[in-house]
Structure formats: C-alpha cells, structure tokens
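Write out this protein's structure.
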Amino acid sequence: MRPVLVTGGAGYIGSHTSQELLKEGVPVVVLDNLTTGHREAIRASRFYEGDISDGELVMHIIRAHQIQSVIHFAAKSLVSESILRPELYFYENTVKSFAFCEAAIKAEVKNIVFSSTAAVYGIPEKIPIREETALAPVNPYGSSKRMIEDFLGWMGKVHGIKWAALRYFNAAGASPDGSLGEDHRPETHLIPLVLQTALGLREKISVFGTDYDTPDGTCIRDYVHVVDLASAHILALRAVESGLPNNIYNAGTGKGISVLEIIEKSIALTGHKFSVVYEGRRAGDPPILAADCASVKAVLGWEPVCSSLENILSSAWRWHSTHPKGYGQ
C-alpha cells in the first residue's frame, strides 16, 4: 500500500487523521514545520520537519516514498489573527499552498484532499448551509482557503489532478484513547476554553451575546468530532483515488449546539462550577451556523458517528484533564 503524505500532520486534525490512516494499515508520511503543530502529536511512518513551500523537499519526499496521494492540512487558522495580519494568511495559506501543489504535481502526485473551512461561506442567508451557497468570506482566513479551492479546480481541469475539498464546521473532541487532543496556542475555540476554565487554568469563560434569535439567546454552532473529520478525509481520499468526480463537501452534523448548552453540559460532566461572564455581541458573529451534509453522506457514505455532544465533551475532558497544559507538559 502506497504511503499518504499528510501536510500539517502535527496539528489537531492532521494528527488525528494520520492516526486513523495508520489504524487502517496505510503508511503515513508527515510534513510539518512545527510552527503551530506539536512533535508529540505526530503519528507517522516517517516525519519530515520542513515547510510546504520548499519545492525541492516536497518533490524529494514524494519521489522517495512513491507517493501518489496527499491530504493537505498545513495552514494558519486563527480568524482574529487573519484580520490583523491578512498578508500573513494569504502568504502562509494561499501562496504556500500554490507552491506546494505545483511541486507535488511536478513530482507526479495524482490525488489531493484539501482541508478547507466553512469560513468560505461568510454569513449565509439560509441555514443549513449547502455547498451551492454563495461564497462570501468575511475574513482573510476564509478568503485564503477559498482561493485554494479555486486553484485546485483549475489544476484539475488543466493537469488532470483528482481532488476533493472538505469544508468543515467546528472541529471538537479528542481521540478515544486520550493520546491526542486540541492544543492551540493561543486557544480560541469554545470547548477547550470552557474545559480549561473548569480545570482552574482560566479565571472565567465569556459568553458574547445573549440576545440572539435562538432558543437560549446564545450563538449556535455545528460541532463535529475530530475523529469523524478524520474519517471524512479518508473517505474523500478513497473517492478521488477510485476516480469519483472532483467535488467539495460540507462536513458537520447538521445539528447546532448553543454556547450555554456547552457550558451547562461541561459543568455537569466535570463536576466543576466556574465563573461565566456575559458580554456584548462580537461583530460578525451570526446567530446560527449549521451544515447541510446530504452530499458527503450520499457520495462518500460518511456518517458522524462520534459527534454527540456527550462524546465530544467526554473525550475532550479526558484529554484536557490529563494534559492540562497541552503536549509536552
């Protein structure tokens, strides 16, 4: 079985996907520059520390391991940082991905699965969000990913590359065995922030807006377990390898969970009460974001089997309570 190259394999979703590939007996080669990833999270048959924009290194890896398929995660993903430093995000995400794909194609890679984002939609008018929804990203992060999708479309038409992109919503949870979890620095995602507060690592958790047109007044988001996302990437890879048409898929549950629901369930799960501070709305936060996942289910046969809120929170709590300061702590 040929190895699969995973870029960004030291990151949150990349490491879980690598682990799931290895479980299926697929050799994994990871390329990561470790600027945001963690060496302790790498699950690979072979690891290369380097940058995706290093064309010579990319071609060497592909040729040395006879790689035909790539899952491309490597990217920066902090929305707030992208607004402050758009030039960084268009360079790190877009320009470097262009360089990586060019080198991969020269080295005769045939199949690419791209880790995209629901941020390409911006603030949609209709919920749940379908893949055909007009793309109108409201931050440089979403724009940087949208440009890569367009690029892959043209690479498919001109160079015959087989590709798929997954636009996922809110990744959450941790591996069932507790060996892998979410460790972003700085952390901006709600569930790890809530659980870190439960552990006493943060003084409070802030709720931004309680007057939205939702059942409890707080924002609702579509949370999908990271192991389910790993499964979606592997199924997408099998689809392109088997010759299915190039396509873009939403990956979520189609069911939204509110901020207050996550906080209340986390208190019940952990047994720790903590300070909750209610603040005003943040600019640009839509009331509800949820995915229409009919396409990924029908075409790839994917089902989010791990993504109940109880499973997401319990697996995340197992990780955070045993790794209170993240990897290497």
